[in-house]
Every structure is written in C-alpha cells, then in structure tokens.
Recover the amino acids of this structure.
C-alpha cells in the first residue's frame, strides 16, 4: 500500500516536472521566434548608419538575454529529466520490492502447506502406532 502511495506521489512529481519542462520548451520556442522576428526587423531597417548600429547593439543585448534564458531553460530541462529518471528508478525499485515480497509470501505459503501435510502424516503414523500398541496390549 505504501509502495502504491509512493508510486502515485512520484508520478505526480514527474508530471509536475514534465509540465515545467514543456513550459520551458515553449518559452524557448517563443524566444527563438522573437529572436527571428527581431532579426527580420533588423534586416528591414533602412535608416542611417548610427540608427542601424544602435539597433544592432540592442539586438545583440536581446540575443545575449535570450541566450541566457535558453541556457537557464536547458538547465531546468536537464534537472527535470534527472528527476524523472530518479522517479522512474524509484518506481522500478518499488516494483522489485513488491515482486520480492510476493515471492517470499508464496514461498512461505508453500512451506506452510508442506509442514501441514507432514504434520498430518505424522499424526496418522501416531494413530497407527497407538492402534498397534492397543492391539498388542489386548
């Protein structure tokens, strides 16, 4: 029961990180779109050289900011992936433990049945011996 609760909690944790990774990918895509739009706008600008140089400097500052955001997003995705892998590993260990518990339980059940059968046989032998002793005494 505790393994199922832990598994449910891990699945919930994995879903949370998958959602965060998805949002990070979406933000990254939006950043690339914005960067593409900025690049297109810069190419279309037909202004004096000083204005073009200023726009380029602004574009590079934005690009640097977007690169920082991209790296942060990649780090978040990496963390989410590691957490997902850890959750999957934990779930696998929980399954192995559950299977081991079932196997031990089955072995104990088998041993108990065998011991009961041996006890019944021993009780029959005792009864036979008691009948022989009674027969010999009479």
């Amino acid at each position: 029961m505790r393994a199922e609760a832990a598994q449910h909690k891990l699945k919930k944790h994995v879903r949370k990180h998958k959602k965060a990774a998805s949002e990070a990918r979406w933000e990254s895509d939006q950043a690339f779109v914005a960067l593409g739009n900025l690049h297109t706008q810069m190419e279309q600008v037909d202004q004096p050289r000083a204005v073009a140089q200023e726009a380029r400097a602004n574009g590079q500052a934005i690009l640097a900011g977007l690169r920082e955001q991209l790296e942060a997003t990649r780090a978040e995705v990496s963390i989410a992936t590691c957490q997902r892998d850890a959750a999957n590993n934990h779930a696998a260990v929980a399954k192995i433990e559950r299977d081991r518990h079932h196997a031990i339980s089955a072995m104990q059940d088998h041993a108990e049945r065998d011991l009961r059968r041996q006890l019944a046989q021993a009780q029959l032998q005792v009864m036979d011996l008691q009948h022989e002793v009674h027969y010999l005494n009479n």
Summary: DSSP finds two helices and no strands in the chain. Residues 79 and 87 are 12 Å apart (CA to CA). The chain has a mean pLDDT of 84. The longest helix spans residues 49-137.
